[in-house]
Write a structure and sequence with these properties.
The protein has helices at about 5-20, 25-35, 55-70, 110-125, 140-145, 150-155, 160-175, 180-185, 195-205, 240-245, 250-255, 255-260, 290-305, 320-335, 355-370, 385-400, 435-440, 445-450, 455-460, and strands spanning about 50-55, 75-80, 100-105, 130-135, 205-215, 285-290, 310-315, 345-350, 410-415, 430, 465, 480-485. The chain is of the alpha/beta class. It has two domains: about 5-15 and about 295-370 and about 380-485, glycerate kinase, domain 1, CATH 3.40.1480; about 20-290, Glycerate kinase, MOFRL-like N-terminal domain (Rossmann fold, 3-Layer(aba) Sandwich), CATH 3.40.50. The strands form two sheets. The protein has a six-stranded parallel sheet with strand order 3-2-1-4-5-6, sandwiched between helices. Strands 7-8-12-9-10-11 form a six-stranded mixed sheet, with helices on both faces. This is DUF4147 domain-containing protein. InterPro entries: GK-like_C_sf (IPR037035), GK_N_sf (IPR038614), MOFRL (IPR007835), MOFRL_assoc_dom (IPR025286), MOFRL_protein (IPR039760). GO terms for molecular function: glycerate kinase activity.
Length: about 475
C-alpha cells in the first residue's frame, strides 16, 4: 500500500489504523495483567469478579479474561453490558457461564438499560467479602446501564416511569449541543450508578479492591465524566452543579418533575452523591487504557509508514460546533496546500457537537415558509457530528474551487467516529472532497439545505461519500484527517 492509491482508499486505511490504535483487547489485557503483576502479594484465593460496561465492553472483557487466565485466576462472576450483541470473536469465544451478557439502549436509555442496571445490582449483592472487582469502562456506559436514582422513582411512582423521564432528559441534553462533560455532569446526579455510586455499592457488599480500567471517550479523560463516573466521586458541589444547569437554561428545558429532583424548583436540593472522602474511594484504582490521542497517533504513524512526506498532528482537541469546524479545517488545508512539499496530512481528534434543537427549529422554519420548495420536508433528521463536519468541509472546498482555487481539488477529508457509528446512522462519518456537493445535487439533493436542517446523511449517501465500517468495538471519540496531495 502506498500514497499513489486513491485518496479514499488511503484515508479508509488510515481510519482502520486509528481504530486499531485504541484496540480494547490488547490494551485491556496488558493493563489488567500489569495490575496483578504489581500486586503479587494479593491472596491467590481472593475471589475475582469482572464488570465490563460500554461499547468496548465485549473486547475489554475478553482482554481481562485472557490476562486472568495467564495468571491462573478464576473468575467467580461478571457482567458485560454492550451496545450490540457481540460476535464470538469479540469476546474470544464463548463467555464463561458465570458471566452474564446484556445489551443496553443507546444513545437514549430505555427498558433494556434498566434491566442492565438491575443486573448490575444483582451482581453487587452476590460478591464475596474480600473480592477483587475489575470494572472495565468505555464510551456509552452512561446510557447502556442507565437507571433512575430512588428519589426520581419515588417522585413519579415507580422505576419504569422514572426511566421514561431519564430518556427524556437524555434526549433534551443530546439536542442541546452541550459538550459530553456537561451532559454527564447533569446525568450522573440522577443515575443509580453515576457519581461513584457503583464503587460504594461494591465496597459495601464486600469488595476489597475495585481497579477501574477505562477507555476514554471524553476530552480531558476525566474519570468523573467517563461513563458518568460510576466509581469516581462527583467533583462538583451543589452550588457549582446548579450554576451549570442555569448556564444552559435547564429550568425551561427539563420536565417539571426532573427539575424538582435536580433541585431547580426551589423545594428541594440537588440529589445527594457520595462525598469525595467516602471510604469506598480509597479502594478504587484508576487506569486509563486508551484515549483519543492513541487513535490520532496511530493514524499519524500509519501515514508516515505509507510514505506521506509531512504529517502534522494538531495538539488542540476538536471542540465546538461541527459545521464551523468543518469550514475552518477545510480553509486550513487550503492555506497549507501552497507550502506543502510532497503529500501532506493534517490530523486532529476530539468530539465536536451539533445543536439538534437549533437545527430542528431551522428545519421547521423552512417548512413553514411557503415561498420555499422543500422536497425533504417529510424526511427525518439524519446525520451525526462527523457527517456535519465532513459536509461543511466539502462545501468550503467546493466554494474555493468555484472561485478558481485549484488547490481545492488536491484536498480530501476524512471525518469519522472511532466507534463506527456517527449519531443514529449506519455510518462512522464520511470521506469527502470538493466534488461531493455536486454529486449530491446530481442526485436531487441541496447540500446547503441538508447541512443547515440536520440531514447531512442524505447528500453524503447520494454522493457515495459515507464511511461504513460497522461497529468497531471501541470508542475514543472522533478523528479527522485532511490529505493534501502534492
Amino acid at each position: 500500500m502506498n500514497t499513489s492509491q486513491h485518496p479514499r482508499a488511503l484515508l479508509a486505511a488510515l481510519y482502520r489504523a486509528a481504530v486499531q490504535g485504541a484496540a480494547p483487547f490488547p490494551r485491556t489485557r496488558d493493563a489488567v495483567g500489569a495490575w496483578f503483576d504489581a500486586r503479587s502479594m494479593l491472596s491467590a484465593h481472593a475471589p475475582v469478579y469482572v464488570i465490563a460496561l460500554g461499547k468496548a465492553a465485549p473486547a475489554m472483557m475478553a482482554g481481562a479474561l485472557d490476562a486472568l487466565d495467564q495468571r491462573g485466576r478464576t473468575v467467580h462472576g461478571g457482567l458485560v453490558v454492550a451496545a450490540h450483541e457481540p460476535k464470538r470473536d469479540e469476546v474470544g469465544g464463548d463467555l464463561p457461564a458465570r458471566i452474564r451478557l446484556m445489551v443496553g439502549d443507546h444513545p437514549v436509555p430505555g427498558p433494556a438499560s434498566l434491566d442492565a442496571a438491575d443486573a448490575l445490582d444483582d451482581l453487587a449483592h452476590s460478591i464475596d467479602d474480600g473480592s477483587i472487582v475489575l470494572v472495565l469502562l468505555s464510551g456509552g456506559t452512561t446510557s447502556l446501564c442507565a437507571a433512575p436514582i430512588a428519589t426520581l422513582s419515588q417522585e413519579v411512582g415507580d422505576a419504569d416511569r422514572a426511566q421514561s423521564h431519564l430518556a427524556t432528559l437524555a434526549e433534551t441534553l443530546l439536542e442541546s449541543g452541550l459538550a459530553i462533560h456537561e451532559m454527564n455532569a447533569i446525568r450522573r446526579r440522577v443515575l443509580r450508578w453515576g457519581a461513584g455510586r457503583l464503587a460504594v455499592s461494591l465496597v459495601q457488599h464486600g469488595a476489597e479492591h475495585v481497579p477501574v480500567f477505562a477507555i476514554s471517550d471524553v476530552i480531558g479523560d476525566d474519570p468523573a465524566v467517563i461513563g458518568s463516573g460510576p466509581c469516581t466521586a462527583d467533583p462538583l458541589d451543589d452550588a457549582t452543579f446548579l450554576a451549570l444547569l442555569d448556564a444552559h437554561d435547564m429550568r425551561s428545558r427539563v420536565e417539571r418533575v426532573m427539575g424538582t429532583v435536580l433541585g431547580l424548583e426551589g423545594a428541594s436540593d440537588p440529589p445527594r452523591v457520595p462525598s469525595t472522602d467516602h471510604a469506598a474511594f480509597a479502594r478504587v484504582g484508576y487506569t486509563l487504557v486508551a484515549r483519543n490521542a492513541d487513535a490520532v497517533q496511530a493514524l499519524a504513524h500509519e501515514a508516515r509508514a505509507l510514505g506521506i512526506a509531512q504529517v502534522v498532528v494538531q495538539q488542540m482537541p476538536l471542540e465546538g460546533d461541527a459545521a464551523q469546524l468543518g469550514d475552518q479545517l477545510a480553509r486550513l488545508a487550503l492555506q497549507t496546500a501552497p507550502e506543502a512539499h510532497g503529500d501532506t496530512l493534517l490530523v486532529c481528534g476530539g468530539e465536536p457537537v451539533v445543536n439538534l434543537r437549533e437545527t430542528a427549529d431551522r428545519a421547521m422554519s423552512r417548512n413553514e415558509d411557503e415561498s420555499l420548495e422543500v422536497p425533504w420536508s417529510d424526511e427525518p433528521l439524519r446525520g451525526g457530528r462527523m457527517q456535519v463536519l465532513a459536509l461543511s468541509a466539502a462545501l468550503a472546498l467546493e466554494e474555493a474551487a468555484a472561485c478558481g482555487d485549484s488547490r481545492s481539488w488536491k484536498i480530501s477529508v476524512l471525518a469519522a467516529g472511532t466507534d463506527g457509528r456517527d449519531g443514529p446512522t449506519d455510518a462512522a462519518g464520511a470521506i469527502v472532497d470538493a466534488a461531493v456537493p455536486a454529486l449530491a445535487r446530481r442526485a436531487g439533493r441541496v447540500p446547503e439545505d441538508d447541512l443547515s436542517t440536520g440531514r447531512s446523511w442524505f447528500p453524503l449517501d447520494a454522493a457515495e461519500a459515507l464511511l461504513r465500517p460497522g461497529p468497531t468495538g471501541t470508542n475514543v471519540m472522533d478523528v479527522v484527517a485532511l490529505y493534501i496531495r502534492a
